[in-house]
Predict the structure.
Amino acid sequence: MSAALLNFGLLLTICFCLATWVEPRWRKYSKQAGSPASISTKLLGESRRLLAGQALIAADKYFHLGYYPSVFELAEKEEDQHFQGMVTQTNAANHAEEKTHHREPLDWLERFSRHFHPSVHVHADEKGEAAQREILPWLRIAAELEPENPQVYVLAGFYLRTRFNRIDDAESFLRDGLRANPGSPEILLELSKLYLDNRNDPGQSLNLAELAWRRWLEQAQKTEEPDIFLKQQIVTQLVQAETKLGHWRQAIRWLEELKKHSPNPESVAQRIEELRREHIHDL
Amino acid sequence: MIRNIQAVAGVVLREMLRRKDFYVVLVLSFLLVGLMAASRFFSADKAVASLKDAALLIIWISAFVIAVTSAARQIPAECESGTIFPLLAKPITRTEVLLGKFMGCWLACGVALAVFYAFLTIFSASRAHTMPGAIFFQAFWAHWILLGLIISLALLGSLVFAAPSSNTTICLVALAGLWLLGGHLNHIALRMTEPGSTLVYILYYILPHVELFDLRRLVVHDYPAVPWLMWAAQTLYGLTYTAALLVIGCTLFQRKSLR
């Protein structure tokens, strides 16, 4: 047997021994360091959050079919909206308004340049499913880069189940989000909607909405400014699930909760009265 | 005059096609796009726009690099090797040499660009199952016109700056700045106080607008073709700047001491 072959065998043996020595230590270290880091975390570190933000912006750009204001135009728009807000106290972000109040070009060169890039505010919904599908890869990238952001999972889950009718994909992605963000009320709420609207399973939907409610209460106790909008969404979902199950008493109880922060408490009170009238014998 | 320019351009074209840079960039671009196309999101997605977007960005960056690096070394390489002297000893003027160099580089970049866009067209048609429209041709044309401007800028830079490396760096930085900021200089000027505001606005009108030639977003999101009159105006705009830069370049080359 040649010396080269023996050397090769020796090197292989050393490699094997080293691997058996390193592997348990690495596993122990990984456990101490928390969940195993993804490739993006290892490669990009904290800068991945910045890239995740860019991926979300890209998703928004694709939703607007390439029309996206520059940072300078956005700054001007913010100033305008601030002004409009002071004067009219109305929401200036109305799509129809934006279409009609599109900013005039500053000069002939800008007017000329508008022929060479998308300069009209449109939404992917208006162009059909294929255009909307293009948003998904960016949301996936954003989730890969920043799995701690539950909004990305909620947004992708919403698109998958409502626009593409891909319920299994939506559920799988939302459960991925739940693994990355245990107990996130936003993701639990979206899952609850999926079970109620798409799987026609109000029982499971109610369980998920109740869990979302408990998690929201836990979060609300820890913060000075709880997310009231999320609370209203969770409570609305609870009302829907209880109504579907015929739990009228609980539905009314949740409607009472909804009324506390509703911008239109009269209509909620009216709904409560309707339920009481219609199901007087069940209460 | 035309024959002399053709002769120099032919030599430059052959020299560039013999070099490996172009093929390396081409293979790298194909590999990157192929890798991206292989990744699938959400089990059954057929995302075309994001892949076209990425492919076009790669094409844009590759074309920038090819154009600037090839044009920047033309005159310095001739001077360094001393081949400029036997060349100028022939019945050929300095203007013809510079124009020949420009034509050669522009044609070579055009060939590279045609290969890139042909790849993009085939790739896009195979993924979207539809033939790309006239906007693809307009995007290719606008890109090629812009490359003419870039090459003339790099040739001018090679007559001003001492080394091709510094010329390449300055040109690439300036082009990236023009590409990203050029179209917003008017908005920046509005937020400034005088006399800065007027100065920036003058710059806005004087500097070439690289972003005018960037039709990527229209291609990516399947917009219809640009009105042909506007397309012609865009071509004229690009050719005017190229001609202006070449005139300055020829003037400088006439006066440049080659020793």
User: Anything to note?
Assistant: The longest helix of chain A spans residues 3-32. The radius of gyration of chain A is 26 Å. Chain A has 15 helices and no strands.
